[in-house]
């Protein structure tokens, strides 16, 4: 672990800072720019429930396996963690500039997900199976960390305990385990020159059911572009028979995070 604040200071000297407000996270994210060069810095409280050190470890494990940011610095002081990364060139998939070419964007989203799911899990140290994530959901309920103001429309008005009981009742009997992004939403997929240039926000990546990603992708496509493009995404990914129960379950599970 690096904990040399002077090293961080040396790297970012001369950069201008702009806070990035898209997305929901405990971390604060800043875009640092100097001439044509850009970096990203995440900071968050040292006692946050999802440590930045875990995201650092996952990005370093993924180097050479997937197009993800390179970690330039990780460190912590008495109050905060700091994670400095290179920029993935391009524009995220939720940006309105893609609206003139939506079918192609949807095909790229499916292609990107197939690429992530093709990573070998044989020696993957990061487990996000239901045994892990349901326990984390329970802890979040106990600590009052479930954001009831940000529930999907069909679950508004329910309390955290009701949602957790529903989660247990709907738990799938099997898991089709692959390497997953963990939060495969459009803002986390970067497009450049009509191709996927990389993936960001990998703190929840690891071995899980492929529907962990499929469910959140479906919800994000519907939110950004409408329901009419979901069938194209599923077809391009390679799903012939959709497991609607798993889509519902993994969207419910995401309410806790």
TrEMBL record:
It comes from the Bacteria. The keyword ATP-binding applies. Gene3D superfamilies: 3.90.1200.10, Phosphorylase Kinase, domain 1. InterPro entries: AGP_Transferase, Aminoglycoside_PTrfase, Kan/Strep_kinase, Kinase-like_dom_sf. Pfam families: APH (PF01636). Residues 25-247 form the Aminoglycoside phosphotransferase domain. Keywords: Antibiotic resistance, ATP-binding, Kinase, Nucleotide-binding, Transferase. CDD domains: APH (cd05150). Belongs to the aminoglycoside phosphotransferase family. NCBIfam families: APH_3p (NF033068). This is Aminoglycoside phosphotransferase APH(3'). It comes from Lederbergia ruris.
């Amino acid at each position: 672990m690096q904990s040399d604040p002077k090293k961080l200071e040396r790297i970012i000297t001369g950069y201008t800072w702009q806070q990035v407000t898209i997305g929901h996270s405990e971390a604060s994210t800043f875009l640092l720019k100097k001439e044509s060069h850009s970096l990203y810095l995440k900071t968050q409280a040292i006692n946050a429930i999802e440590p930045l050190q875990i995201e650092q470890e996952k990005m370093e494990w993924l180097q050479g396996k997937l197009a993800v940011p390179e970690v330039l610095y990780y460190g912590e002081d008495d109050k905060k963690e700091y994670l400095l990364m290179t920029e993935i060139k391009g524009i995220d998939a939720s940006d309105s500039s893609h609206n003139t070419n939506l079918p192609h964007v949807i095909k790229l989203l499916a292609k990107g997900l197939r690429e992530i799911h093709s990573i070998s899990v044989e020696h993957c140290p990061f487990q996000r199976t239901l045994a892990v994530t349901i326990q984390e959901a329970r802890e979040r309920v106990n600590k009052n960390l479930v954001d009831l103001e940000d529930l999907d429309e069909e679950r508004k008005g329910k309390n955290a305990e009701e949602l957790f009981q529903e989660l247990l009742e709907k738990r799938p009997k099997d898991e089709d385990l692959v390497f997953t992004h963990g939060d495969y939403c459009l803002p986390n997929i970067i497009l450049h020159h009509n191709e996927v240039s990389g993936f960001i926000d990998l703190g929840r990546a690891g071995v899980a059911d492929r529907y962990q990603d499929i469910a959140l992708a479906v919800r994000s496509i519907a939110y950004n572009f409408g329901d009419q493009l979901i069938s194209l995404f599923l077809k391009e990914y390679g799903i012939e028979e959709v497991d609607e129960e798993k889509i519902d379950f993994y969207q419910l599970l995401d309410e806790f995070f």
